[in-house]
Amino acid sequence: MNETTPAPAVQAPARRTPAAQPGGPKARPADTSRPTGRQRAAELLQRQGVLAVLLTVVIAASFIYPTFASLDNARGVTIQASFLAVVALGMTLVIITGGIDLSVGSVFALGGVLAAWASQYGFLAALLVPLVVCGAIGLLNGLLIARGNMAPFIITLATLLGARGLLLALTDEGATTYLVPKDSAFGELGQGSVWGFGYPIIIALVLFGAGGLVLQRTSFGQTLFAVGGSSDAATLMGLPVARTKILVYTLSGLLAGLAGALNAARLSSGVTIIGVGMELDAISAVVIGGTLLIGGAGSISGTLWGVLLLAVIQNLINQIGSLNSSYQSVVSGGFLIVVVVAQRYLARSRRTT
Is the pTM higher than 0.70? Predict the structure, then answer.
């Protein structure tokens, strides 16, 4: 007799539940962990809804404005979006853990100034100096938040002010602008291209690909979701909660510094007035991409679509011509409100059986 076949044995009589008795209450349906069709649709819309919106906007704009669909315009949109994308990648990791990093805009600008200043000493110095300093700022954020149990909003707001103050001190209150030497290898990093697409675009895509693999295919990525879902539960599970938070804030600082260095290489100078409000753009792109502000859920690809959507909106405003760039903030804010409301509704739908 096959081992998987139950032997014919005397079975105990089935217990009659109240639902089985005549006139008794109806039986409660068996609980199942398998998601319903409505839950699966809500989850798919939360993850890929921004991609559908992006494709719709791009297709509509291509018909309305013929120049929008040109290859040159696509290169311009993607190169401008690449710097925000690198910053938003680090922000995604932070928000998934339930945190926030308001310092990335100032760290981005500081990284650009440090890279331009250090470029006179060679390619490696131009890259390493901003990475070391900006990474140290991120490390400070992580230590104070994870070890000191301090609020991420307050700590990163303080380092926002500190990084901007350090930038002004290095540039004599903005009076000094450091230039990248002409024909330097560092300048080529920001201005060179492959098949017409600049190196910053390629670097951003590589980083997003690596980030997606880390988030979905490694234990570290699963730890990020666990920490964001419930820090106390993650601690009880034996996960390194404090070390994880320190690492993600350090990565956020490193990526913001790298984005600033790439921007300085492209502009051939360390511009002091950039990065103001960039932290809000990064948060908007992350949230529009489907990452929950409360943590515990999100995706790298969604952030990429969110960044591209904001870049396309800015480009469309430029295509219209009669509108100034301030309308981008209005449109971005409108998108953000819609997405937050939609996320709340979708999360409620996913909980509904």
Answer: yes
